[in-house]
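Researcher: Please generate the 3D structure of the following complex. Treat every line as part of one assembly.
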Amino acid sequence: MTRCCWCGQTVHVPLTVSGVFSFSRLTPEARCQSCARKLVWIDPEIACPGCSRSQKTAEWCMDCLKWKKQYPHKDFSHIALYVYEGLFREWLQAYKFKGDYRLASFFRSDLRQAIRSLKPIDIIIPIPVSEASLRKRGFNQVEGLLEAASIPFLPVLEHIGRGKKQSEKKRAERLNSPQPFQIKEAFKEKIKNKRVLIVDDVYTTGRTIFHAREVLEKEKTAQIQTLTLAR
Ligand SMILES: [Zn+2]
Ligand SMILES: [Zn+2]
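Model: Done. Output below.
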């Protein structure tokens, strides 16, 4: 019997006929139905095609139009799964900021499903955290999510930024923050001509994702897709 890693309720696994046969290939949910219902899913039909911001229509949002100006030759279409509010916010607070590693599995089946629905990927690259955050929390929260979902990844990027964390900055400071990432020497050859997926927990201004894209593009990756749990 599995219990919801957030609220402790029993997780019921529906055993349909097809379920019985495909059971071993499914990732059992680590959260109950009532928690799942409290999450607000982003409907791609009415989200910004550039960043998945939940809107009334699928038009490019103001933020993305600015990114297009800044990166005119880049194609981007970020995927985010949930709206950053309510239970998602509470979960992130407990998992990332309080450092409760057991909550990493809350989104494991979403992550696996989302990655299966993308274009083919050779390497999955998590956004790294600073040395200071790593010492404080004890783990990289993005790697934690991938590990909990048994998704293989390569820690290609390293965080070399100093000063405040993105989450402590005001919006203007975030947008103007300098490049905090570099590629670890050992991975430079491995990513050439590869199709990569960058994974992070939340997309806020897009600054972090575009910084990561920038350093990877310099190393001639073949294609870059980006995914976060929330926007
Ligand atoms: Zn629950
Ligand atoms: Zn957008």
